[in-house]
Every structure is written in structure tokens, then in C-alpha cells.
Amino acid sequence: MNKGRIEAVFLMIILAVIWGSSFILMKKGMLTYSPDQVASMRILFAAIVFIPYMIKSVKSIPWDKFKYIIIFGLLEVGIPPFLYTYAQMHVDSSSAGILNSLVPIFTLISGIIIFKLRYNILTTIGVLIGLIGALLITYFKIGSAGTTMDLTNSWGLLIVLATLFYGIGGNIMKEKLDNIPGPIITGVAFISLAIPAGIYLFTTNFISIPVNNSHNLHSLIAIILLAVFGSAMAMVVFSRLIKQSNALFASFVTWLIPFVSLLWGWVDGENISYLHFSSMAFIFLGIYISGLGEKKTIKAS
Predict the structure, then answer these.
(1) In the chain, what are the domain boundaries?
(2) 108 band by pLDDT with thresholds 50, 70 and 90
(3) How many Å separate Cα 35 from the centre of its chain?
(4) Which of the residue ranges 4-8, 39-43, 100-104 would you say has the lowest mean pLDDT?
(5) Which of 135, 149, 158, 194 is most solvent-facing, going by the fewest CB within 10 Å?
(6) Confidence at residue 298, expressed as pLDDT on a 0 to 100 scale
(7) 279: Cα within 13 Å, side-chain hemisphere
């Protein structure tokens, strides 16, 4: 294993721990704050981290790349935080982590549709199997009456949509922004989105919420950790991972995230059942088969 691949694997493990912990941090943040407040605070606090670095770096960005950075920002750090927080009002953090595993599948799909990457029947089969896993954890529940189907609970599909955005964003970074340092891309994305996020926040009661009791203080700390580590630092590491490998390999970090989110869910008293592991198995199998399809296509070309 060469030095670059060793670094890529190391970065992937770090990301898995950070992002796998993000779901429980969102859950704790929403004990006090609304979903919109948590998502907006996440963007705003992460942007603050980047301001000192961006003051001296922004001039190095080619003007023709700004449009791609803005699109990347919306898809990676602008819209998904809101989708996740609203979904986690109805979906436990363990299930959210499992659904997040769909990112490699949507990285493939977006690469095929938008960037005209080649594909074959294995890719299609893998995508369908992975989506079965997503539907399983979204619509089937275990309760006192046993395993039941609830077609009215579609909140998990918000997370599926977020993984689609992540897949497109990863391809944009690799295909359109590969010559720009990752911290600069991420910094511009967060700072530009912090303006509308901050305007919204100051129309809410987030400042007036008291933090002199442990309950509210813990929620605020959870959101700060989510912003600094789960957003700012994680996106820098993710961009480095993409540049050390490719968008698809970087998206494989989502193979590891569910194990971290399941562990946190178990620690927090969530009901971990065979449905979680069955869904995860379908998604992982789909990713594996899709990956075989991509390798076969690359060799054929």
C-alpha cells in the first residue's frame, strides 16, 4: 500500500468517527433548539472557524470557479443539514447513520447521469439492492405488534435526498474543483451560506434561549461540536480525501459511519433491531455490487 493510499484510509477512519457521531449530536441539539435553528447554527458556527483562514486565501480562487463552489456548498453544507434535522425528528440517529450509507450509490448515479461516466448492468443491480435497504429501514418498524409496515412515515427519504446531494457534490469537487485546495472550497461554501443562515437565526429566539441550565447548555455544546468537527473539520478532511483518491472512494467512508452511529444510538438507549442490520446489509451489498460494476467498466474502457 503506497503512502497516498495509507493517508486516504487514515482520513477515512477519522471521517467515519466524526460523521458517525454527528447524528447523535443533532439529536441532542434538537432537545432545545428547532431543526431550522440547529441546521443554521451548524452552518454559522462552522463559517466562523474558516474566517481567519479565508481572509488571506480568498484572492487565490479563480473567478470562473466560484459558481461551482457555490453549487458544491449548497449540495454539501447548505441543504443537507436541514434535511437531516427534520428527518431526525422522526428517524432515530442509528437509522439516519445507516441511510447515510447510500452516498456511494448516488455518487455513481450522479457520475453516470451528470458526468457521463460509463456503467453496466452490475451498477444498476447494485443501485436497486441499495435502495431496497433504504426502503426497509424507512418503512418497516418493530413494535409491540411485531414488524409492521408504515407507508405514511417517509421522513427517512429526506436523508436519501441528502445523500443524493452529497453524491453530486463529491463529483463536482473532483471534476470541477480538483485544482483548488479543499479548505478554500469549504471555507467559501460555509461563509457564503452563513449569511442567509445568520439572517434567519436572528429572526428566531435562539439568542434568548437561556443556557444557564445544564439541559440547554448541553444542546448548545452539541451544536458547537457538530459545527466545528462535524462540518468544518470534516469537510476539510473529506476534500483532502477526495483529492488523495476519487469521489467514489471518498464516499466509501459511509460504509463505516453506520457502525459509529449504531454505537452511539445503543449508548443513548435507542432500540437497535435486526431491521437496522438487515437494511445495512442490503445497502452495503448494493455498494459492493455497484463497485464491481464500476471496476469492470473501467477495465473494459
Answers:
(1) 3-300
(2) confident
(3) 16
(4) 4-8
(5) 149
(6) 43
(7) 27
Per-residue cell: 19: 460523521
**pLDDT tens per residue across span 162-217:** 999 998 998 888 788 878 887 888 888 899 999 999 999 999 988 888 887 888 99
191, 137 in Cβ contact below 8 A? Answer: no
Residues in the chain: 301
Higher pLDDT: 257 or 81? It is 81
C-alpha cell at 221: 455544546
**Cell digits for 30?**
434538537
